[in-house]
Amino acid sequence: MNSQSTTPTAADEDAIRAIHQRMIDAWNAGDAAAFAAPFTDEADFIAFEGTHLKGRREIAAFHQQIFDTVVKGTRLQDEVKFVRFLSVAFAVMHSVVRVTLRAQTEASPSRD
Question: What are phi and psi of 76, to 5 degrees?
Fold first, then answer.
């Protein structure tokens, strides 16, 4: 956020959306380190199948394993529904992410 402002700007929203897009791009590249980069060492992450991961290292290790095996070749597409600032330092983003499986050419709505 702009150090002169106490109100979030369009640039602040763009910065949040950019983090999400970098994660989508990292998934599509099979790059677990880049996927995990936005997370802190204290982060909690619940994976799609329920695994609870703690910290950037666990998030990266888990994702590298699945990028090399069960989700290898999958692609994500996303749609950000909204970014809402709850305060000058805290925002919520709602997005829908669709996965295209390795053998498919289009994402299935059932995989949102």
Answer: -110, 145
pLDDT tens over the chain, length 112 residues: 545 567 899 999 999 999 999 999 999 999 999 999 999 999 999 998 999 999 999 999 999 999 999 999 999 999 999 999 999 889 999 999 999 988 888 877 776 6
Q: Supply the pTM of this predicted model.
A: 0.86
Q: How many CA atoms lie within 13 A of 70 on its CB side?
A: 6
66 within 8 A of 35, measured Cβ to Cβ: no
